[in-house]
Amino acid sequence: MALSLREQPAPVDRCGEEKKGEDPLRQGGTGDHLAIVVGWVATVVMISFLAILILEVLMRKLFSRSLFGAYEVSGFLLIWISMLGGYLAYRGGEFVRLTLFLNILPAGLARKIEKAKQFVVMLLLAFLSVSGFMFVFSPAVMRQRSTAFHIPTVVGYLPIPLAFLLMIVASVEILYRRNSLRR
Predict the structure, then answer these.
(1) Are 169 and 34 in contact (CB under 8 A)?
(2) Is 1 exposed, middle or buried (0-12, 13-18, 19+ CB in 10 A)?
(3) Separation in Å, CA 96 to CA 69, 100, 101, 164
(4) Category of 23 on φ-ψ map: left (φ > 0), alpha (ψ -120 to 50) or beta
(5) What's the confidence (pLDDT) of residue 93?
């Protein structure tokens, strides 16, 4: 497959049956529990976001008034949804990637390239996480308060570095599981 949204499907043996336990992202573990918690938090945040937007529209249409702080809160919630969803997509292998080149290489070489790619991705995620924490906890952001509720804007921006940190954890888990399957 040239363009893939998921990891390659589990290998098929000579009888045409799928080999069990080959997909490193679908096994139980601590990372699964973390992903479940993040999934629930993302669900609650998404429901809250939709409820605020629906209430805002109803208030404007029915009473010609705006819901106090709706724009501000929905902006913060959108950041939370995007970043938590990004982690869940990364962990689930849902990001688009080009696999045509890897599919024509010998399996051993393709695995080595995948491992090298995973290390480069981990370095990039580490850079983004550190940069994100430096931004979120910079004096300029620490002094800022939201307009309507006067809460620190750190609350709204904190999921940016946290999501990159979670992606690093997922990368380590993926590397560990792939290496343990090869043995």
Answers:
(1) yes
(2) exposed
(3) 36, 12, 14, 18
(4) beta
(5) 82
